[in-house]
Known about the structure:
The structure holds two protein chains of two kinds.
Chain A: H1 2-18, H2 41-53, E1 61-65, H3 76-85, E2 93-94, H4 100-107, H5 117-120, H6 124-132, H7 139-145, E3 155-156, E4 164-165, H8 186-201, H9 205-234
Antiparallel strand pairs in A: 1-2, 3-4
Helix pairs in contact in A: 2-8, 6-8
Chain B: H1 19-26, H2 29-37, E1 41-43, H3 52-71, H4 81-90, H5 95-122, H6 131-153, H7 158-169, H8 178-186, H9 193-224, E2 240-242, H10 243-268, H11 298-306, H12 310-322, H13 327-330, H14 342-363, H15 369-394
Antiparallel strand pairs in B: 1-2
Helix pairs in contact in B: 3-5, 3-9, 4-5, 5-6, 5-10, 6-7, 6-9, 11-12, 11-14, 11-15, 14-15
Amino acid sequence: MKFLLIALTLLLPVLAHASEGEAALPAQNWSFNGLRAGWNKAELYRGYTVATQVCMSCHSFKYITHRDLMRAGFTEAEVKAMAKSMNMDLNAPLLTGLAPADAQETYGKVPPDLSMMNKAREGGADYVHAVLTGFSEDPALIKEHFPDGLPAGAYFNKAFPGHAIAMPPPLQEGAVTYADGTPATVEQMAHDVATFLQWTAEPERFERQRMGVFVLIYLAIFTLLAYLSKRAIWKDVKGH
Amino acid sequence: MSSHQDFTPKPVEKNIRNTYRWLEDRLPILSFLSDALVTYPAPRNLNYMWNFGSLAGIALVLQILTGIFLAMHYKGDVNLAFDSIQHIMRDVQWGWLIRNLHMVGASFFFIVVYIHMARGLYYGSYKSPREVLWGLGVIIFLLMMATAFMGYVLPWGQMSYWGATVITNLLSVIPFIGKYVVVWLWGGYSVGDPTLTRFYAFHFVLPFVIIGVVVLHLWALHLHRSNNPVGIDLKRAKDYIPFHPYYTIKDTFGLGVYLIPFTLMVFFLPEYLGHPDNYIPANPMVTPAHIVPEWYFLPFYAILRAIPIKEIGVAAMFGSILVLFFLPWLDSSPVRSARFRPLYKQIYWLFLINFVVLGWCGANPPEGMFVIIARVATVLYFSFFALLPVLARYEKTKPLPATI
């Protein structure tokens, strides 16, 4: 009875969650997932390169400053050099130079802030990766979804809900030059920048998980001691 | 509470050892606490389902404590609210921890209270002489729902805004005055800054109202003492054991078991029960594809949408909760525990499964088969309450034991 009851009650939130998914996104291997996960500094730096050189032409990261990167394992000297190469103050948020009014005129809408993107979309990093690599000019595919042709100014994207996106394909082979010599393929850049976006969305991720492990160990001991005490105290109660 | 019949004041005790008696003579708060938490005679046969009452109390205290620290950093202004949440998550020392505890804590509070209510339903804890105790519990549940609803508006994301818009709009069905009531509630012609500010005020103060009702709930509980799994009145002194140390240690163990999944969610899956759209700032110009409330409202949301006529849908949704107040009189069977009620036991489980099905419908868009399932489930939900008076008359209950 008890376990059935608890199981039923727990089913409610789980069901609510399970029925939200839409089209399945191709799941990627992320360095921030798994048991031994952490921020991969080289990957973050490559993602930062794409974010600042490509994304920031139109999008902002208004909750992120260069100083914040120190939380991901960059040294103060490195961060200062990065800020300096962009002529930015260490504490200035990463804002785009594109004025909202100009964006509205050119693209028909203001590009969203990217700091929270991986939390603000179903699928998170997988979704961002899928959108960045999901552009297609295949006429047959476009015809299938838009028999009357794409809306004016829109681009076809396999992962974007509705498939017509206002953003032009942002990544082209070799769009950036990686300092570590990694070839800048679209796939590589999409993967790196999606990892970077995971960090901008939850910079506390690994502080949180590390602390969680200690709290769980503490609770396991606490619960065991409480159980043994309970058994000792209840020893003399009839029927228990 | 021990009553004092002797009204003549006693001389102030000179001996420091008698401070307890001195205070006791002026404000018997220590003996009140002792009666409630130490010597309170509890049935000795309570099972682990009886842990959820004290767990709910702990969950409430945790929400209030974390909430106070969040309130120190939150800004109740449409232009600042969304950013202030990010300020808490990124800049405030331990801000992410406090917010995750509060966010996950709300969901876990509802899980605990749902189990607590389901336990009362199974063992007939709402029956005489505990009708008022049950009714106070339903009031707490309603206050919790109001508090949680307004709390979800505060981050001022897309779901905050549109959830608030959909739910407050429901009041427009009140005949004649409905649309004025909604404007009055909003403080304008749509959900906006005045709405956010007043919701913040209510979200802050309602938990303290809940504490007040919890005190009444405990008062009513202690008068006739806890029900028990057998559901019979316990008359012998040896059927009871003092709350401390027996139930304090059992509740401590229960707390540990509860905190483990809670911790897993707080530290490893804090966003699991949230909605991604709420990380998009509120935008009155863009309606989300599906507006879904938090999971704990989904069964009631499904009832609302199951009925095509809005007025009746709203009435059914509120009715589905208000009917709980009448439960003690709808179920007139003298036997409390479902252990001795073979028919009740069956419809009880059907009712619970049906409740989960309603939640599942509420999470899905109201299209196709979900509409049909939701309608059937809505009828079944109310059928449970309609069946209770009939059941009490025809059900052959098993013989009750004389004692535990």
